[in-house]
C-alpha cells in the first residue's frame, strides 16, 4: 500500500486548507484513515480519525475546526482544516490501516 498525502502549504491565521491522502491499496474502504501531525521539536500527535464506517474522532485541540472525511470510490481520505492557528503548524501525516504516508507541511503564519 502506498499513501500520498498532499495539500499542505502556507496559510494565514484564520485560513483554510484541505489535505488529501490517496492510496493505491484495494482495501482502503475496510480501513480507518487517521491523521497525525508533528510540530518542530515535538512528538507526533493524533489529530483525527475516520473509521471505515465514516465515524469521526478528533483531538480536542482541533474539534470544531477540522473535519475528516473519505471517498472510498477514490481511495482517498481528506482533512478539511478551517480557522487555522499558528499552533497548527506541523508536518501532517496520514495513516491507513498500518501504512503511513509521507508528511505534508502546513505552515500557519502571517
Which value, in Å, is the CA radius of gyration?
13 Å
* Proportion in β-strands: over 45%
H/I helix tally = 0
How are helices and strands ordered from N to C? EEEEEEEEEEE
On the 0 to 100 scale, the average pLDDT is 95
Class of secondary structure makeup:
mainly beta
What gap, in angstroms, lies between the N and C termini? 37 Å
The coarse overall form would be globular
The total beta strand count reads: 11
Low-confidence stretches: none
- Estimate percent helicity: under 10%
Biggest sheet statistics: 7 strands, mixed
What are the main properties of this structure?
seven-stranded mixed sheet, single chain, 110 residues, mainly beta
Describe this structure in words.
- This protein has no helices and 11 strands.
- With 110 residues, the chain is mainly β.
- Strands 2, 4, 5, 6, 9, 10 and 11 form a 7-stranded mixed β-sheet that branches.
Fold blueprint:
Blueprint: E1 3-6, E2 9-11, E3 17-23, E4 33-38, E5 45-50, E6 56-58, E7 66-71, E8 76-81, E9 90-96, E10 99-100, E11 104-108
Parallel strand pairs: 2-11
Antiparallel strand pairs: 1-3, 3-8, 4-5, 4-9, 5-6, 7-8, 9-10, 9-11
Give a short summary of the structure.
This protein is an all-beta fold and 110 residues long. It contains no helices and 11 strands.
